[in-house]
Amino acid sequence: MINPGQLVMLLSPKGKRYFKILDPQEILNTNDGQLQMQKVMENGFGSRLDTHLGKTYTVLKPTLYDLIKSVKRRTQIIYHKDIGYIVIKLGIGPGSRVIESGSGSGALTTALAWFVGDQGRVYSFERREEFATLCMDNLNRNGLGSRVEIINRDIAQGFDLKGVDALFLDVRTPWDYLEHIPDALLPGGPVGFLLPTVNQVSMLLTAMEQGHFTSVEVLEILVRRYKPVAERLRPEDRMVAHTGYLVFARLSPKHLVLPLEDETEDSGDEVESF
Ligand SMILES: C[S@@+](CC[C@H](N)C(=O)[O-])C[C@H]1O[C@@H](n2cnc3c(N)ncnc32)[C@H](O)[C@@H]1O
Fold first, then answer.
1. How far is the CA of 93 from the centre of ligand 1 (A)?
2. How far is CA 139 from the centre of its chain?
3. What is the pLDDT of residue 267?
4. How far apart are CA 220 and CA 186, in angstroms?
5. Domains of the chain from N-terminus onward
6. What is the pLDDT of residues 4-22, one digit of tens each?
7. C-alpha to C-alpha distance for 221 and 76, rounded to whole angstroms
């Protein structure tokens, strides 16, 4: 049994995913015929149901991975592998208030909205109206829209917010907007950027050296998938070799310089018990 209002994923025989906020009155029109949502509700997650044309669909509870994969794209999006590290580095969790720009298609926004929960808030700045609308449509389809405020304006005008917990920029020239970050972010708060080229990373680092930031880190994340065949286990022939570079820092708390993190160290040596 699935509760009305819960998000369900219906997987077609060909692997097409349909996402629906469950309304038992609804009849879903698919490429393979009609599915009664009343039956989806009664049969529950993991069940298999036939459309009126006899095609079998599987009812699943979607993961965040599924939701991001289903985002309708009209811009470059941030990939799952990068999003995972971004939310950890920014400390996004239930109740977080976070700024991001630009919204684009809303892949990162979807993840931020998922993690901040009903008590948190995502402020997503987007200067192009069509992408602001696209992002909100993608969020509403998954029932996450109520956690997000899309602000349709250029961040050159600043953020008009105070004391947010974290801030992330996925825009072409983030160095143009660094001056607005201290007004919006909690002192010492985490900030992150995604940039597709090393030239942009250099420009950003040069701008960051002018002040406001500490604990600066630059990295990229590579994922190598394997063919899941037990007797001939080996990597897939192709991989996504490049998506973007990630830059993280903390907004300098007044008078405090945090030491750079060295993730190659065995952190166990540094732990003291009291
Ligand atoms: C690559 S897309 C963002 C993709 C998004 N992070 C995602 O995961 O789907 C970059 C977006 O930033 C927006 N943008 C660029 N400069 C901006 C600015 N100064 N203020 C607001 N939005 C901006 C662009 O219009 C574009 O939609």
1. 23
2. 11
3. 56
4. 26
5. 7-62 (3.10.330.20), 66-261 (3.40.50.150)
6. 999 999 999 999 999 999 9
7. 17
